[in-house]
Amino acid sequence: MQANEKYIDESRQGEALMTLPTRNASKKLFLESYGCQMNFSDSEIVASILTEEGYQTTNQVNEADLILLNTCSIRDKAEQTVRNRLNALNAIKKQNPSLKIGVLGCMAERLKHKFLEEEHLVDIVVGPDAYRDLPNLLTEVEDGRDAINVQLSKEETYAEISPIRLGGNGVTAFVTITRGCDNMCTFCVVPFTRGRERSRDPHSILREIQELHEAGYKEVTLLGQNVDSYLWYGGGPKKDFKNATEIQKATAVDFAQLLDMVAMQFPSIRIRFSTSNPQDMKDNVLETMAKHHNICKYIHLPVQSGSTTVLERMNRQHTREQYFELIDKIRKIIPDCALSHDMIAGFCGETEEEHQDTLSLMEYVKYDFGYMFAYSDRPGTPAHKKMADDVPAETKKRRLQEIISLQQQHSAERMKAYVGKTHEVLIEGNSKKDENYWFGRNTQNAVIVFPKIEGTSVGDFVQVYVHDCTTATLLGEMQNQN
Ligand code: SF4
To answer: DSSP assignment of 409-478, as one string?
Structure first.
């Protein structure tokens, strides 16, 4: 799931979801999440479903009646982390045999029944499209049976389930707008673990943002594996749009229209989105971004490689030249737009020349930041089945280091370009290093820290003059707010 690397926040891996006390709750749920933001969002849906079943969340694993791990399959290391966690939970299960343990998410989907065979302490295995079935599966387990549902759905978007959202800062939230992906990039597990691409009803998206607005949230990130491909025509998979009725086609809502609706209806809320796929990013999205002040000027635009031949092997469906055209268009329509990337070093068969193409592409774009990885072969993907993972580990490591060094250089240049200017910043919380400082981000998603001034609080939009920077952080002073 390379395109969603952005939201693999290392500091949140293994975080336990906590919700407000539930009335009449008789059982305790320990729900731990791994992987990308999509999983953290899904955990909020799971909490909502189980709250209806009389569960109350706990962050004390020892007092839980039910432990659920929402897992990630992106790399072998991610899966190993979950296996180690399960081993550690074994000791608790020995002391408390009535404790039930379940595995959710991508790893559940990838391994299916194998999970129950390999990890004997696991009682429940549930894939990302089957969370509504959790109450039934729990009954199965109570009756002494192993419970598994890894059915992928063409329709499921959990549209009307209001996620329980209390882990974050109360100011910024993620709102899922699409699920699954049809792109079949050869290195990616998403099409197999999260199924066909489908879009969520725009009314339910607007309703969720309305609820967030009423609860005091100031920024939403519209989330999906490929948000630019969003297309609502009454429900069902994107690939079936061609069979839609004339009325459905005429009234369909695409991503630019959705963005426009959200921006117009919530002028005081900042809007971000992720992830964008170059081949699906249309001009109307860029024009909508340019039109609305409250749509942030930042695009996470994974490219994965700068070489057309590698892009072909990855089945990315665009060339190096087409990517440059898109970058030129973005710079023209939204001149102050920040860009970030995902990059894979050492994909199957990558030559030195192809690697040099990646470096020269980075020189052309000069990204604000990037998420960079050495290629890791994932079982089940087309690359695993049909291509040799033949770039030696040492070479992968060296190429990755060259990519990282170049990105550090570009990030430093971009940060310096923000110095000497005033930025609108949403205060998101205390600076980690010093609680006398606020932490927030500008529209380009750059982190800014600045001394607190009395009368300001989390959730305020303030003007901050940036006077200095480190490699990753802008340092500023609040301006007179009138
Ligand atoms: S666009 Fe490609 S990398 Fe991204 S989720 Fe879809 S298949 Fe995976």
So the answer is: HHHHHHHHHHTTSEEEEEEEEE-SS-TTEEEEE-TT--EEEEE--TT--TT-EEEEEEEEE-SSEEEEEE
Q: 228: which DSSP letter?
A: G
pTM above 0.85, yes or no: yes
Could you list the residue range(s) of the whole structural domain that residue 200 is in?
Answer: 172-417
CATH number at residue 15: 3.40.50.12160
Residue-level pLDDT at 21: 61
Let me know whether 373 and 239 are in one domain.
yes
Helices and strands, counts by H and E, the chain: 15, 22
Pocket lining: 225 vs ligand 1, CB cutoff 6 Å: yes
72 is in an annotated binding site: yes
The answer to whether position 4 is within a domain reads: no
In the chain, the number of structural domains is 3
Instruction: Tell which one of 190, 305, 323, 347 to mutate to probe ligand 1, the residue whose CB is within 8 A of the most ligand atoms.
Output: 190
Q: Is 185 annotated as a binding residue?
A: yes
pLDDT tens-digit profile of 285-330? 999 999 999 999 999 999 999 999 999 999 999 999 999 999 999 9
